[in-house]
């Protein structure tokens, strides 16, 4: 599986967009990018995933570069409840084996 | 009930005890997982069951014994644990199968926090 690199921590002001980057320069053609988040002491929560097109749902937007070597998760209007650890995972679709790294700890402040 | 339910939410046990963690999902999924999360460490995948068959066992010590009697229930039987096994144990489920199946979209439970004395 392709390895991902994320900054260990980020800050964001409430109401502003939070842009969380992920580098996956060794991604292969059939690997998807998945994003999850984990609010303190809770189970992780699925956010969004994509292959090569940008994706948007009610939680976030996922922007994948044309060469697919990096992506950005965008929370358009961050709230205090978005404070969490965000995980970027690259995985072939259809495999039952998600490996979580250290993620990015996002702190949203008033 | 909907989602993934884990019981108990908190468990304290001695090193000689035998206990079990239970996970139940009402999502119609056919793959279930156990993850372990120790303090300040990333989640570690322990076991994966797909269609009630164990398909992954990540070198987990034998003092942890999983059981999947049907696609809705998953157990983790614990015996002669060590203090370093104290952690948050997370259960998850997903659709299983090949490409396009959504197998990597996991729904997690709230976890069972285990303390071994």
Top keywords for this entry?
heterodimer; A: 110 residues; mainly beta; 4-stranded antiparallel sheet; 9 strands; 47% strand; globular; B: 117 residues; 7-stranded mixed sheet; 0% helix
Topology:
The complex is a heterodimer of chains A (110) and B (117).
Chain A: E1 9-13, E2 18-23, E3 31-38, E4 45-50, E5 55-56, E6 61-64, E7 70-75, E8 84-92, E9 104-109
Chain B: E1 4-7, E2 10-13, E3 18-25, E4 31-37, E5 44-50, E6 53-57, E7 64-70, E8 73-79, E9 87-94, E10 107-108, E11 112-116
Parallel strand pairs in B: 2-11
Antiparallel strand pairs in B: 1-3, 3-8, 4-5, 4-9, 5-6, 7-8, 9-10, 9-11
Task: Tell me what you see in this structure.
The complex is a heterodimer of chains A (110) and B (117). Chain A starts with 8 loop residues before the first strand and ends with a strand. Chain A is globular and about 40 Å long. Chain A has 110 residues and is mainly β. In chain A, a hairpin with a 6-residue loop joins strand 3 (31-38) and strand 4 (45-50). Chain A has strands spanning 9-13, 18-23, 31-38, 45-50, 55-56, 61-64, 70-75, 84-92, 104-109. Chain B has 117 residues and is mostly beta strands. Helices cover 0% and strands 55% of the residues of chain B. Chain B has strands spanning 4-7, 10-13, 18-25, 31-37, 44-50, 53-57, 64-70, 73-79, 87-94, 107-108, 112-116. Chain A binds chain B through residues 30, 32, 34, 36, 41-46, 49, 89, 91-103, and chain B through 4, 31, 33, 35, 42-43, 45, 48, 50, 55-56, 88, 90, 92, 94, 96-101, 103-111, 113.
- The rounded Rg of chain B comes to 14 Å
- In terms of per-residue confidence, which ranges of chain A show pLDDT below 50 for 5 or more consecutive residues? none
Order of helices and strands of chain B: EEEEEEEEEEE
**Which class of secondary structure composition applies to the elements of chain A?**
mainly beta
Q: What would the average pLDDT of chain B be, to the nearest integer?
A: 89
Q: Order of SSEs of chain A, N→C?
A: EEEEEEEEE
Content of β-strand of chain A: over 45%
Largest sheet of chain B: 7 strands, mixed
Strand order of the largest sheet of chain A: 1-9-8-3-4
Query: How many DSSP E strands of chain B?
Result: 11
Provide the helix percentage of chain A: under 10%
Number of strands of chain A: 9
Distance between termini of chain B? 33 Å
Quote the distance from N terminus to C terminus of chain A. 38 Å
- Quote the beta fraction of chain B: over 45%
